[in-house]
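User: Show me a protein chain along with its predicted structure.
Assistant: Here is one chain, sequence first, then structure tokens.
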Amino acid sequence: MKKFSIVIFFLFSIGLLQYCTSSKKAKKTETVVSYEKDVVPILQASCTPCHFPPGGKKAALNTYDSVKFYYNDLIARVKLPHDNEKFMPFKSKKPPLSDTAINVLELWKKQDMPK
């Protein structure tokens, strides 16, 4: 009977581990954001045609290196108040970036801008 109680206690303890906070943290992994898969679609949807050659007359955002170079300005401008004259995308051209899109760009930077 004592062995049976120990086995039941052991199995019960293992079952409870799934509800443990540290166990949940171990299961969660941060999504890896890539330039090609995640960043390019955001830029194509929100920054064309103004920042995409050949028609774009503004700083080009059509290559990995150019986006990396202009990242700080890009993120600062999309986070400005919408009535600020430097806010991007320029009013009436495209809708503002969603919080989700901005979070993707920030996570990409945090992850050292993987291609």
